[in-house]
Amino acid sequence: MKKLLWIDDEIELLKPYCIFLKDKGYEVECCCCGNDALQILAENRFDIIFLDENMPGMSGLETLEKITELSPDIPIVMITKNEEENLMDAAIGKRIADYLIKPVNPNQILMTLKKHLHGREIISNQTISSFREEFMKIGSSISERLELNEWFALYKRLNEWNMKLSENDTELYPLLSSLSDEANTFFARFIQKNYISWMKDPFNRPTTSIDLFRRNIAPLLKENNKILMIVIDNFRYDQWIVIRELIKNDFEISENKFYLSILPTSTQYARNAIFSGLSPLDIQKNHPEYWIEEGDDETKNQYEKELLELQLKRLRMDVRVFYSKFGNSVGCEQALAEMSKTQAPLSVAVTNFVDMLSHARTDDKMIRELTKTDAAYRALTKDWFKHSGLVKMMTEMGNKGYKIIITTDHGTTRVNRALKVIGDKDTSVSLRYKVGKSLNFDKKDKKDIFEISKPSEIGLPMPNLSSTYIFATNRNFFAYPKNYNYYVSYYKDTFQHGGISMEEMIIPFIFIETKA
Fold first, then answer.
1. 323: which strand partners?
2. 339, 404, 417, 428: which has the fewest C-beta neighbours closer than 10 Å?
């Protein structure tokens, strides 16, 4: 039974309210002044306090201050006849839970109690009930016949439910997880069915990494808009949702779109494609000085600015570019200082913290412990963003008239099932895709693997004449037979990228402006 303390100098007039609340299952104790309330609180525990603002002797605000010193965690609802704004500000400044204006009616009181004492439980029950209905609808809508925009919408709905369920501590995650796995199975079939034809037809395919700049950013620059493009490596839509909550009071989210990452969904391929506007094969052919092969030790993305400038030249756009890349808040501060000074029409900020976090989660036991669940992984991303310096960058550049774009090159997925693969010594080391010659895998796993025997068909280079690519789908990953059990246990439940899943391929692309 929830206990309520009601403090009011006209408490006798409130007896009918107290009887009403007792009939509703609450235990109510009443007193008529602040001093009596403090004595009662010293000896009893309450779940909520109703406090009259206008009392003789110790005023409501004075009583409020004393109560918060004595019991800082109890929600306090101020009740008053006074509607003066400065009084409300003073009460809210002392962190009251709610504010009611007299005369109040019993249903108002009951609603306030439900809100502050039972809100989480009510929301949780409503969420569970709504999810059960939605589960059937989503399940019946999943099929190979969905169009790409329908896959985008489905992915968005699954993420929204992921967020709702994580906020309410329900036990429905296994259901949601199975639904996501089923969706990813069909999504992989959809990609396998369409991907090769898309890559052969650049004019009629959906927007991919290769098309993103030409279709979505170049037109804005041609209209003389100043653009700040923030690329957060290895960034997923669910991580964007928690960041959106951080910035929604200061920024207008003018558009929230998706585009499709190319395969492999890894930085070397997808991000180079964004900045160059070319397939990896075309970069290798036309600009070999800017392409780093799989087996080379060099950083695979060290020529992004050069590739971007080549794309602008190819588009016949004379646009000055500022480019920066950083992994911590100090680097962000330095980039902002230079960016503000330069004020190039196109400013690009690339940050790889989330990518470092996902790799650290694989290798570092402490980070693994801190990010056991997707919700914990999102929370760590949110804390990073809050203190990263990016909000300051967005604010300052937004105030200088820049339109802001937040996006990424690819996402990541939590893997849980190993597929055995055999390759030669030059086979790539990635867990979600392999490129090499003489790649062999168990035929029973064929349904979980997208095999490309002619890489040029999807715009990928061939390290050797007989090189092929294979991509893991859903939450599978590749492991070699040698030391198989060790690698399976080491990499299971880690975040990986390079393969085919909604989390890796469906990429958020967000337009933001500062609020006036």
1. 348
2. 417
Mind listing the pLDDT tens digit for each residue in 265-274? 999 999 999 9
Lowest mean pLDDT among 115-119, 216-220, 498-502, 504-508: 115-119
Q: Which residues contact 399 (CB under 8 A, 6 or more apart)?
A: 514
Residues 501, 8: Cα–Cα separation, whole Å? 60
Per-residue pLDDT tens over the stretch 427-443: 888 999 999 988 999 98
DSSP 8-state assignment for residue 456: G
Residues 376 and 187: their CA atoms lie apart, in Å, by 26
Q: How far out from the chain centre does Cα 219 lie?
A: 27
Residue type, 60: G
pTM of the model: 0.81
- The contacts of residue 387 (CB under 8 Å, 6+ apart) are 329
What's the rounded mean pLDDT across residues 15-23? 89
Max Cα-Cα span within the chain: 92
Using the structure block, give the residue that is written with the tokens 């408490």.
Answer: 11
CA geometry: angle at 157 spanning 155 and 161, to 5°? Answer: 115
C-alpha 281/C-alpha 287 separation (Å) is 10
Helical segments of 168-298, H only:
173-200, 212, 218-222, 237-247, 272-276, 280-286
